[in-house]
Amino acid sequence: MKILAINGSPRTNGNTSLVLKDLLAKAEAAGAHTSYFDLADLNIKDCKACMKCKKEDCCSQKDDMETLRPLIQEADLLVLGSPVYMGDQTGLMKCFIDRLYTFMGPSEKKGELKSRLSEGKKAMVIFTCQMPNGNMVYNYIAVRYFNLLVNMLGYSDIRSYIIGGANLNEDLRNTPQGKSALDDGGKFILESLKANV
Asked: Does the pTM exceed 0.90?
């Protein structure tokens, strides 16, 4: 099983990164092949809406998304992580999400698009935030990602976690919300591994 994790935080050693890396360590210990990228270290430009990807199965832009694109296609599980800034994902993650549009191709129905990704893929999205009750306040982000990944890109299953209470002086993994997300996320990975055998 292949797992690809993308960190959308500009802080490459912050809480979001630590949570993602912890999950990947559990997955590797269980036999998964994992890859991890910090968007802050990559050069990914904004989508230009040129629509080349609707005529051809490629993007007109030549940047680091070319490295990620085949990894996204190959991954059985896509794990996305971002802190919540000003009530939403970071700009880095939004830019990456917009570039996923290249995976939407023409459908048999005129004017509609369908996913170019293979069926059966799973996804996990993790958002970290300072608000202790962020899992309730920012639930709309999880709903939007469900629509994006399941309804638009055709992922078959998704888990969403919004971990509140982040601060610079405490490892979020040691908080009740962090422990719960890591425990449940780890179980989801193990279940996915068993189903993938």
From this structure: yes
38 DSSP β-pair partners:
7
Candidates 105, 83, 197, 87; CA nearest to 153 is 105
Q: How far is CA 70 from CA 41, 51, 117, 150, in A?
A: 18, 19, 10, 19
Task: Name the token pair of 117.
Answer: 């990704």
State the SS3 of 20-40: HHHHHHHHHHCCCEEEEEEHH
Q: What is the DSSP letter of 103?
A: G
Residue keyed to tokens 């179980």: 187
pLDDT, tens digit, for every residue of 134-172? 988 999 999 999 999 999 999 999 999 999 998 888 899
The CATH number assigned to the domain holding 126 equals 3.40.50.360
What is the tally of structural domains in the chain?
Answer: 1
d(CA 155, CA 170): 34
